[in-house]
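Entry 14. Ran structure prediction on the chain below.
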Amino acid sequence: MIKSSTRVRGLPSYKPGKPIEELQRELGFEKVTKLASNESPIGPSPLVIAELEKFTRQVHLYPDGDCFELKKKLAFKEEILPNQIILGNGSNEVLELVAHSYLEEGDEALMGEYCFIVYPIVSSLSRATVVRSSMENMAIDLIDLLARVTEKTKVIFLANPNNPTGTRSTKKEIEVFLDEVPKNILVVLDEAYSEYMSPDDVLNVCEDINKHKNLLVLKTFSKAYGLAGLRVGYGMADSTIIETLNKPREPFNVNSLAQAAAIRALEDPQHVAKAVSTNKEGMIYLKSELNKLNIKTYPSYANFLLLEFKSNARTLYEELLKVGIITRPLENYGLMNHLRVTIGTEENNLQFIAELKKLI
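Output, structure tokens:
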């Protein structure tokens, strides 16, 4: 048997939400409700669908490796320059580029106790030491993060809102934190779910990346824009950081369909507003019903809820699968008594609560 490297053998595996097709194969369901991966329940904009139908005739051609038109659109939206943007095959790829570019053996990568599992994976692959900050009430403690900074700290990963907990820091708290972080440390602010927050709590990217030359802000088209299946995300930072990240980036990393879809998605802000509105209504309903069932939830500023039960949640997860509902168990996050549940359509939410009542 060929022996794998020591840095890979010790890694946790990233386990995505169970695919709909997998459950259909296993249990024969025609219809499955997936509330596991924080996808948009209303799907992409009609403009995106129309564009994809046209663009399929060009799939024999390589994509624009520099994503010129998409960068142009994003630069206009964020009021920054195209050379302050990097596109990735999902923002996940940008996280990998950060680790490749800035972390090596002897460095420390700092992150919350319950953070997106890709942060420790990419950090460990680069031989950096993962340092975790405590999270009381499932919220990032920015003061504790700062207290754990050492001479070895090279990168801080911070999601706002946080995944998998849904909690958030205010804009003011983030700004104070950025002022305090030493300027030789890269702060990766992952705003994958920022569309669901109040605009008052979202950083002004133009102001902050120009003020803080050590700040990289990540965003994605996978959530509110409804393009999870196409994999496109981006990072924004000072041009020197972007130049560094581009060095290990693979050529043609964002496919043509993804670029075309993202451009169209940016032209339909009303669709994003509809996704956010649908999420808000569903969140209110689910929190109310879960409260009636005495199931603990945490404040969420994203498109999902973290549910806490009094015992291991694996059995409940498996029972929900048997009725065609996929939620997200969180054992690989060390949260044995928890499930993460995406806010779905009204029909999805009603079905979830109805089946949950039968099981608890």
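The first strand starts at residue 33 and ends at 34. Will compare against last week's run tomorrow.
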